[in-house]
Design goal:
Blueprint: H1 2-98, H2 117-120, E1 145-152, E2 157-163, E3 166-172, H3 178-190, H4 200-218, E4 227-232, E5 247-252, H5 267-285, E6 293-294, E7 302-305, E8 308-311, E9 317-318, H6 330-338, H7 359-376, H8 384-398, H9 404-415
Helix pairs in contact: 3-4, 5-7, 5-9, 8-9
Length: about 425
């Protein structure tokens, strides 16, 4: 009973205390929860800022790399344009140097203006092509159209052709030439299966044609018919189709002449041609290849081109002076003296180092006089005031007592009297 009374009187304070303690516990729990939530929110904000900062930095770095690559590309294009300018200028100067005997100054290398936008935009593939020494090569040889045969020799044939509105002369080796034809006939008789090595018959003739091309690449004088171009592919061909032809050379077109037709020219025209031929002889004597001799010297190897005589056939030209014997017996000297030779050398030349030096030049003058000068320098065809001097020159030519250089100077002096 007493317990019941105590409980009944005291339960209310305990309940209050219990409620108070429960309230404190709940408050502490709620406070911890709020702090944890705020902390997590704060941490999330920091992570977002850090990630955002990382992306911003990456974008900035990407922009810097792009700018750097763009700058490098511009620098590369600038250097490439400068290189192409230099190569273009160098090729132009080399081309000019090859076409002249004079050297060009070193300060002539000047690059094109860098301010031109068109120059900056030119790529290596778009660089302009420069003119070559020859108009015709294997790339455009198909544009040459053949019309008719105008000449032939032992090893070559010549055709009249047409190239871009201009008449040209085309040389080639065919199986109908004497050298090739006889060789093929002999092979056919000896071996029915000769086709497999028939190209041997073309070797010697094509060698002569190649010799002409190589000589004209090294010689530079208006006395030669101008080589317009050539194409070299193989040793033989049975067709006149220039796309398949082995070796072809193309020259400016001239006219065949008979020497006596020169008599119809005026004395001024004759003197002009004589001066040109004398200058040509002087060039042959002191050519870059040495003193050259025309072994097969005949009028068929010369053409009339625009009022000038020019040489067309060079396959028999060489720089070999005749050999001689330095030490010979007295009896041999006497016998040679009777025949007009001295130590085996004609024209009164002495034997030097086993060669008759000067023979090539004298031989060229001899045949040039026999074929052309006797007609061009016939004294009675000149005015009276010039006929005596022309006659004196012709007498020296008949005696082979004048050099090409002296002849050229005397004829130029006479020409200045006009």
């Amino acid at each position: 009973m007493i317990g019941y009374i105590l409980v009944k009187r005291m339960y209310r304070p305990y309940i209050v205390i219990a409620l108070f303690m429960y309230a404190c516990l709940m408050y502490r729990t709620l406070e911890n929860t709020c702090v944890s939530s705020d902390t997590k929110t704060l941490l999330d904000n920091k992570d977002q800022q850090r990630m955002k900062s990382m992306f911003v930095n990456r974008d900035a770095k990407s922009d810097n790399i792009s700018d750097t690559l763009s700058m490098l590309r511009k620098e590369y294009n600038l250097l490439e344009n400068k290189r192409m300018d230099f190569v273009s200028t160098l090729q132009t100067m080399i081309s000019l140097y090859r076409n002249t005997d004079k050297a060009f100054p070193l300060n002539s290398f000047q690059s094109r203006s860098q301010d031109s936008q068109s120059d900056k935009d030119v790529s290596p593939r778009e660089a302009p092509d420069h003119e070559t020494k020859y108009l015709i090569n294997c790339e455009n040889i198909h544009e040459v159209h053949l019309h008719s045969k105008i000449g032939h020799g032992v090893s070559k044939q010549t055709f009249r052709g047409h190239f871009r509105g201009k008449h040209v002369a085309v040389k080639m080796v065919t199986r109908h030439q004497i050298e090739v034809k006889s060789c093929i006939e002999q092979l056919n008789k000896s071996d029915p299966d000769f086709i497999s090595y028939r190209s041997r018959c073309f070797v010697f003739s094509t060698m002569k044609l190649m010799k002409e091309i190589l000589l004209l690449q090294q010689l530079n004088h208006p006395g030669f018919v101008r080589l317009l171009g050539f194409c070299v592919r193989n040793e033989e061909s049975d067709t006149t189709d220039l796309n398949e032809r082995g070796i072809v050379s193309v020259f400016e077109l001239g006219e065949r002449l008979v020497t006596y037709s020169l008599q119809t020219l005026t004395w001024k025209e004759k003197l002009k041609i004589a001066v040109e031929l004398a200058d040509f002889l002087h060039y042959l004597e002191f050519s870059p290849l040495g003193s050259l001799r025309i072994r097969d010297f005949k009028e068929d190897h010369f053409l009339m081109v625009n009022g000038s005589l020019k040489m067309i056939d060079l396959d028999d030209v060489d720089n070999l002076e005749p050999s001689c014997t330095v030490y010979i017996s007295i009896d041999t000297q006497i016998q040679q003296a009777k025949s007009g030779n001295q130590n085996g050398c004609e024209f009164g030349l002495t034997c030097q180092k086993g060669m008759c030096l000067g023979f090539n030049a004298r031989q060229n003058i001899k045949f040039m006089n026999r074929i052309f000068f006797k007609i061009l320098l016939f004294p009675t065809m000149f005015p009276d005031k010039l006929s005596r001097e022309v006659g004196s020159i012709l007498a020296d030519l008949d005696d082979n007592a004048i050099t090409a250089g002296v002849l050229c100077n005397k004829l130029k002096t006479i020409n200045s009297y006009q």
